[in-house]
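Milestone 3.1: sequence recovery, worked example.
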C-alpha cells in the first residue's frame, strides 16, 4: 500500500483529504478499509501514526444482511 498524491497510479485507490483528521476518521471508522476492500497493513498504520492498535477488524460493521 502506498500513498499517491497525484492520483495516477494504477490499481485500486481511495481518495482521502490531506487533513490529518480526515485520514484518522477514515481509518478509525473503517471507511478506508471498506473502500480498498482489504485489511489495512500494520506497517501502513504505523507509518501514518495510528499504530497497530487501530480497529482493523474485517468483520466490523457486519455483512449488512448478507449471510
Amino acid at each position: 500500500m502506498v500513498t499517491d498524491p497525484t492520483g495516477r497510479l494504477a490499481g485500486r485507490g481511495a481518495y482521502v483529504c490531506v487533513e490529518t483528521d480526515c485520514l484518522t476518521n477514515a481509518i478509525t471508522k473503517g471507511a478506508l478499509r471498506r473502500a480498498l476492500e482489504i485489511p489495512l497493513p500494520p506497517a501502513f498504520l504505523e507509518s501514518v501514526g495510528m499504530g497497530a492498535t487501530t480497529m482493523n477488524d474485517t468483520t466490523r460493521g457486519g455483512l449488512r444482511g448478507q449471510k
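Residues 20-28 form the longest helix (9 residues). The CA atoms of residues 2 and 44 lie 8 Å apart.
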